[in-house]
Amino acid sequence: MTIIEVRELTKQFGEVTAVDRISLRSGEGEFLVLLGPSGCGKTTLLRMIAGLERPSSGHVLIGGRIVNDLPPRARKIAMVFQSYALYPHMNVRDNIAFPLKAQGMPRREQLERIQWSASILGIDRYLNRKPRQLSGGERQRVALARALVREPSVFLLDEPLSNLDAKLRAMARDELQTLQRRIGITTIYVTHDQVEAMGMGDRIAVMYEGRLRQVGTPREIYDDPADTFVATFVGSPPMNLLERDDQLLGFRPEHLLPKDAVQFAPDALEVNFQVTRQEYLGADRLLYGVVSGLVEETKTISRLPSTISYPVQAGEKYDFVVRRGDVKMFDKRSGQRTAAEPAFLAGTR
Amino acid sequence: MKLTEAPARIRSFQVPYVLDREGLLGVAMLLPAVVYIVALVGFPLVLAIVYSLSDVTIGNQTIDFVGFRNFDAVIHDATFQKALKNTFIITVVSQALVLVLAKILALALSADFRGKAIVRFLILLPWTTPIALGAIGWLWMLDSTFSPIDWVLREVHLLGPGTLLGPDRNLVWLGRPNLAMASVIMVHTWRLLPLATVIMLAGLASIPQDIRDAAAVDGAGFWRQLFQITIPLMYPIMAIAVLFGIVFTFTDMTVVYILTRGGPVDSTQVLASWAFYKGIQGGDLAQGAAIALFLFPVLVGVAVLMLIFARRREIA
Questions:
Q1: Which of A92, A262, B38, B230 has the lowest tally of Cβ within 10 angstroms?
Q2: What are the residue ranges spanned by the domains of chain B?
Q3: A14 neighbourhood in chain B, CB within 8 Å
Q4: Architecture label for domain B69-315
Q5: What is the pLDDT of residue A340?
Q6: Helix, strand, or coil here: A140?
Q7: Which of B207, B218, B229, B235 has the highest number of chain A CBs within 10 A, making it the mutation to test binding with A?
Q8: What is the DSSP letter of A339?
Q9: Is residue A252's pLDDT more than 80?
Q10: Which ipTM score applies to this complex?
């Protein structure tokens, strides 16, 4: 199994620093997700790993060797593009065969490998079709088959699911992860979709403005965000941030619950919650409103699972609680997480 | 209001809405082009067909039909046969050169380098020059005594007494049949290279970056990428470039007229120049028209191919 590593990697386009001194190391056979909003540098980072972009400084290591000077074809990587980048003038068989031909593999062996990868992805029936005769989902599988066929040491995926419609995407997510687990290739997966990142990644690397903000398992990213960016980027609706002195008090919407609906919780913080609007979403309810009491009046969201049938009227005030353990503190100026429990929380105990 | 009552209908002939009627607008927009084509292409073509079947001359413009006698006379004329052959040779060779050179130039120009805009401008320049001016420039370049090309060849010791191309001090480009043909082909190539290059640059730019990246990651080097990805994806647009070139070269008489007047001894005569000499300068309008009509089948074929290729662009 191959480990991918980048050290102090930087890429500048003129004045703009797209990737800013990023160091990151994958595990063996790991599914590592690069998550961030568009323009955060995640695709540039991926392209530098692939060799499609030259780093301004820093190193890319694949399997422990510095590959900065190697062209893409010498890096034994396979990449799947957002647009799939199938060769439109070739049929599916020739598309999949292309990397094998480039290696100079004997014809008979090529056919066996094509058959193997096509059957894994269930596209045996389409081998003679041209890409334009395929649906989005089918094209995506062809792109995966082409990446898979020469058994690369590394898989690089650049938003491979974002051109699929929502229903197909959920299915493809499942299939893609199953496939990766089965063949166990180290995979780097770029996405701006936190649901994909949370659902598929062994670990997630959150990027913003060219910097790495946090690396961790989906649970760590969600439960222990390193700063306010990660806290508000991951999770939908985002974490509530309430100002108090020079600190920000953060808690997830699902942690803000009606006092009456929570069974005995001795360490709970009590707040006043004035509901201004509610949204019924089926599995849960979103309550939009203003929290007061503990902090300045701040717009806040609460998410109640539909199993809590607590009656709420817009315009009314209610007593809500947050468990002390669910409150994260951030420094107001830097946005960084502060570990220490502030005095005012200790005082209310 | 009762349901049976027909609602009032607002007519769209009212001034503000007239232009929203696609039928009307379409006719209005197409009309100038139709008038233009009928007057400047359709009418002369019909006239040429009528002339070619008659005995009309510059002196006697009454039209008496004589059947295919003019075609018969033209076909058996040795100069015509030479001109027909030359027209094909010049067109095929110059377009083959244009295809290869334009492809190379387009690849070079699609790369990023300093001064790219200036180089692109310079390469486009021949296309913006009127063909007659360009040809006059070449007349000097190929002059029998003062040719700068000869001068350069002499300076690098390829021409002159005791050298590879010697012993004469000049090659006399336009005075020897083979060199004269080569000169005409060279000028046609020079003239059409810019257009073909620009068309191919557009074709190159239309290949998505992802596809090139995918090929690079899949292990394709420069040549594999060129011959298995870039060129196949560019077939349709390359065909368009070549077909344009064929039309311009096949029908052109300016280059031959200015450089050689068809000489020496009709060795560079082409259909267009021969039709001009025969019909206008020789006064035999009927035979001139018959010669010119031999351009027609080739041009129809090219036009049909162009329309087919224009439909068949395959970049998904």
A1: B38
A2: 69-315
A3: none
A4: Orthogonal Bundle (1.10)
A5: 61
A6: helix
A7: B218
A8: -
A9: yes
A10: 0.81
